[in-house]
Amino acid sequence: MHGMWRDGNHFQLLPESARFLPAMFEAVQAARESILIELYLMESGRLASALADALLKAAERGVAVMLMLDGYGAMGLSSDDRARLEAGGVALRFFNPLGFHSLTRNLTRDHRKLLVVDGRVAYTGGFGAVDEFLDAWYEVAVRIEGPVVADWVRLFCRLWDSPLTRGSGQPDLVHNLRLDVSPHEDYRGMRGRVVWGQGYRYQAIRHSLQRQVSSARGRIWICTPYFVPTFSLRLRLARAARRGVDVRLLLPGELHDHPGIRYAGQRFYGRLLKAGVRIFEFQPTFIHAKFSLADHWASIGSCNFDHWSLHWNLEANQEVDDHRFAEEVAELFERNFATSREIRREEWSRRPRWQRLKEWLFGSLDGLLTRLR
Ligand SMILES: O=P(O)(O)OC[C@H](O)CO
User: Fold this and answer.
1) Ligand 1 atom 5: the closest Cα is on which residue?
2) 65 near 99, Cβ under 8 Å?
3) SS3 state at 260
4) Residue 340 Cα, ligand 1 centroid: separation in angstroms?
5) Ligand 1 atom index nearest CA of 304
6) Which residue spans within 16-155 are E strands per DSSP?
7) For 293-349, what is each residue's pLDDT tens digit?
8) Is the CB of 227 under 6 A from ligand 1?
9) Which atom of ligand 1 is found nearest the CA of 313?
10) CA angle at 163 for the pair 158 and 164, rounded to the nearest 5°
């Protein structure tokens, strides 16, 4: 499902945590009325403590602070940290805590990443409140102002107030939030829309990407940490490359938090390379960012292109249709291609048997996962 395309927004690309974390903390420190945070990952540590401190200070000065965490992704948040947040006035809710329900229900996770301050400025991207984002992982976020912020707030409120979300935070806290989202005259032409997905029930993010891949004329560049594409996406990427579109994938190299997923995706390299798709494996660190570019359309957010994101998770991305923003995203891609290793077709065809065995093994496991419902 997706919101409407809305004009008059301002989108600022914030690559690397050294850019987006200070910006997000400053926004929290300046909040006067409300702070909404939705995260998949929050684990006790330096970043979670710093975030908790900032939220507690905001709550102390009378700001309504709502923190919604995934019930599985936040299992590493200690009971002390939870108690500290609640005692200091932070309203805390957990989406779908694990329980004796069906497997599908337990697999349904809230994977979205969002911060909204004073109903005016929002941030999304691939971030979480775990220490890996401080220095170990490469991540990208986008700062959002304008009418599209209202759609992010609505998305948050619906889940906060849903029967699948539990916790001491009151569901009705989100009922009277004030918004400040008038279009900005300087930003006319900067169109954006929020696109969200709920596993295999709503696959708007995937369908939107597929449409872009099928219609792109110049370039399709995709960065994702967990690349296990569906058959239809692979087919579209290969077709686009064959019709002369510059198709490139920016994927993690050996530094990976789940190497098995990398092997499962690598089994598709051969055919994609044969069709003319260029594949770059990022070298400096584990790249956890999720952003795509097709001509002048860009999408940044939580959605990976693996079965977890596409079959079970709640996901949300910010799409932007604007030449200026697209050029910024293109420059970011170029910088990252330059620090990546390009996989060449000849070289790939000579990879060792041990590598092929791992691709087969993890590919078969992945095939089994796709059958879970
Ligand atoms: O699910 P993501 O993309 O937010 O990444 C978190 C990883 O699963 C942690 O291992």
Assistant:
1) 288
2) no
3) helix
4) 21
5) 3
6) 34-39, 64-70, 91-95, 114-117, 121-125, 137-138, 140-145
7) 999 999 999 998 777 767 788 999 999 999 999 999 999 999 999 999 999 999 999
8) no
9) 1
10) 90
Answer yes or no: is the C-beta of 41 below 6 A from any ligand 1 atom.
Answer: yes
Q: Are 24 and 55 in contact (CB under 8 A)?
A: no
- Residue 124: is its pLDDT beyond 80? yes
Name the one residue in this structure whose structure tokens are 């806290």.
173
Q: Which of 304, 315, 41 is nearest to 198 (CA)?
A: 315
pLDDT confidence of 176, banded at 50, 70, 90?
A: confident
Number of C-beta neighbours around residue 83 at 10 A: 11
User: Which residues touch 204 (CB under 8 Å, ≥6 apart)?
Assistant: 1, 2, 195, 196, 197
Calpha distance 169→55 (Å, rounded) = 14
Question: Two tokens at 289?
Answer: 């960012």
DSSP 8-state code for residue 82: H
Residue of 212, 251, 226, 190 whose CA lies nearest to 302? 226
Shortest-distance Cα residue to atom 10 of ligand 1 = 257
Residues 361-371: what's their mean pLDDT?
A: 86
CA atoms within 13 A on the CB side of 348: 19
Is the beta carbon of 228 within 6 A of some atom in ligand 1?
no
Paired residues of 36 in beta bridges: 66, 116
Can you give the three-state secondary structure of 271-282, one letter per residue?
A: HHHHHCCEEEEE
Q: For 171, which DSSP code? A: G
Rounded CA separation 352/237 (Å): 26
Residue with the smallest CA separation from ligand 1 atom 7 is 257
What ipTM was estimated for this complex?
0.90
Helix (H, G, I), strand (E, B) or coil at 137: strand
Question: Residue 39 has which token pair?
Answer: 């995260």
Pocket flag, ligand 1, residue 75 (CB < 6 Å): no
Strand, helix or coil for residue 244:
coil
Give the tens place of pLDDT for each residue, 73-117: 999 999 999 999 999 999 999 999 998 888 878 888 999 999 999
What is the model's pLDDT at position 1?
Answer: 63
Identity of residue 36: L
Task: Look up residue 140 and give its DSSP letter.
Answer: E
Tell me if 304 CB under 6 Å of ligand 1: yes
Residue 212 token pair: 């872009």
